[in-house]
Write a structure and sequence with these properties.
The complex is a heterodimer of chains A (106) and B (368). In chain A, 44% of the residues lie in helices and 25% in strands. Chain A starts with a helix and ends with a strand. Chain A contains 3 helices and 5 strands; from the N terminus they run ααββαβββ. In chain A, a hairpin with a 2-residue loop joins strand 3 and strand 4. With 368 residues, chain B is of the alpha+beta class. The N and C termini of chain B lie far apart (86 Å). Classes of the chains: A alpha+beta (106), B alpha+beta (368). The interface between A and B is large, with 29 and 54 residues.
Chain lengths: 106, 368
């Protein structure tokens, strides 16, 4: 009986420590500051990547999760390599938009 | 029992051998590769695959076409165009292979392909290009009367009406009214007092005498220095509706509202007429390159900040000639202004937040 109880306590301890680890990992990847501030801090370095012509705040396909969206005139080796998957905890997605140009003349 | 470190060590060695093997199988891309034209062996292989499968795949109405191109890692690939509006597009996509005889198969969701014939009448039967009987409604073709250079004429949209002090002004873009800043191909530059006409030169065979003067240019020189692409024309008395009515939208509110993601919006413009979409992004930092006159050379590249991004699939919301359109919230009565549309691509339209424009001009919207 006592042996059984010890086993249960041990199992519980293992489970609790696992949950604690997972929680710590989740909170470490959670965004720490406002997404506008993140964009303002990184837009210049992103625009410096060849092929990148814009960056803005949008949502993922679930229509609610905030993300940073990168606008590409066209894919380049540098854009494939240097655009991060996330920035300060926010997901980063890429859209090939083509050149953004003034829409004056037909 | 085996030492666990020896197990890990063996595993790492196996992975290293596998990576080395895979690397050795890669083509020697550093060597002088032949050009990736139709004679390139890999391109020919991809075309052979394309020829074998296209007819069969296109029996499915969801498959709109195929093409051979280069993927993101410069390898030939077969692209399959799937109708994004098809109900069972997902099922069709799942049925396609990722790779066929060594050629990667890529999926591209797209609108239905259509001939790019102009549609100057918009969607509702109201012409946005015809010369109107004054006083005119806005959301119509217009521009600088001398916007003719290098064998082309240019124009855009007379978007909306604003009030500055006691006077009313037509609001459009810098690049529609006053971006001719070099003598260049026509020997002139845009100057205060120049006529602003309706329709624009592009809709009167480049002949200003076929149009009517509805305003006189009051340059604002918003670019390249400021963060907005705007310009104004002082209304010629009796030529523009004083209530600021816009074709197919009607009168708007004198109030404005800030954009938010998924906000339903609409606009009335020269090329696509009345069109609707939704806001897909905010606070955009975007680089846009401007010409120094109609069909001229590059004047400057401007990086805007804080812009509004709107879904523009297939340029159905905003297309060339729509610049200057006012974007408003999509409500039936007296909608509030959201942004001044000025740029885009076939996927995205860009608008200056209207409050930035009004603040720059010291203006208010004319409306109810």
């Amino acid at each position: 009986m006592i042996l059984e109880l010890r086993r249960c306590i041990l199992l519980l301890t293992v489970i609790l420590s696992f949950v604690g680890t997972m929680t710590a990992q989740t909170s470490s990847s959670r965004p720490k500051r406002d997404i506008d501030a993140v964009l303002a801090a990184h837009d210049k370095e992103l625009l410096a990547i060849p092929g990148v012509i814009g960056v803005y705040i949008g949502v993922l396909s679930d229509q609610k999760t905030p993300c940073l969206k990168i606008m590409l005139a066209h894919p380049t080796p540098e854009s494939d390599r240097d655009i991060p998957k996330q920035l300060e905890g926010y997901p980063v997605t890429v859209e090939v938009t083509g050149e953004i140009r003034p829409l004056g003349s037909p | 029992m085996r030492n666990p470190w020896s197990v890990v060590s063996s595993l790492l060695k196996s992975i290293a051998v596998l990576v080395a093997l895979l690397l050795s199988l890669r083509p020697f891309s550093a060597q002088a590769d032949p050009p990736l034209d139709n004679n390139h062996p890999a391109i020919r292989a991809a075309i052979a695959v394309q020829n074998d499968v296209t007819d069969e795949w296109m029996k499915q109405p969801e498959v709109l076409g195929t093409s051979v191109g280069i993927d993101g890692v410069a390898e030939p690939a077969l692209t399959v165009y799937i109708d994004r509006d098809a109900a069972n597009a997902g099922e069709v996509i799942r049925g396609l292979p990722a790779n066929l005889r060594g050629t990667a198969v890529h999926i591209q969701l797209t609108d239905k392909f259509r001939a790019m014939k102009g549609n100057p009448h918009g969607g509702g039967g109201t012409s946005h290009t015809a010369r109107q009987t004054p006083p005119i409604q806005l959301g119509t073709s217009g521009g600088w009367s001398k916007d003719l250079a290098n064998g082309y004429c240019c124009g855009g949209t007379l978007g909306s009406l604003v009030q500055i002090g006691s006077k009313q002004y037509i609001l459009s873009n810098y690049h529609v009214f006053e971006s001719d800043i070099v003598s260049g191909g026509n020997g002139i530059v845009a100057t205060n007092g120049d006529p602003i006409i309706q329709p624009g030169l592009i809709d009167v065979n480049c002949t200003a005498s076929n149009a009517q003067t509805v305003g006189t240019l009051v340059k604002r020189s918003s670019l390249p220095g400021s963060n907005v692409d705007c310009s104004t024309a002082e209304v010629v008395s009796g030529m523009v509706r004083t209530d600021g009515a816009i074709l197919e939208i009607g009168t708007i509110s004198h109030l404005t509202t800030a954009a938010f993601i998924n906000q339903a919006v609409k606009k009335s413009g020269r090329t696509t007429g009345l069109s609707r979409s939704s806001v897909s992004g905010l606070n955009a930092t975007i680089s846009v390159t401007y010409d120094n006159e109609c069909a001229g050379g590059t004047a400057f590249t401007k990086t805007f900040t804080g812009q509004i991004v709107v879904a523009n699939r297939g340029s159905s919301f905003l297309n060339s000639g729509d610049s200057g359109s006012l974007m408003v919230e999509d409500v039936a009565t007296n909608p509030r202004a959201v942004g001044l549309l000025f740029a885009g691509s076939s996927t995205s339209a860009i608008a200056n937040p209207i409050n930035q424009v009004l603040s720059f001009l010291g203006a208010t919207m004319v409306g109810q």
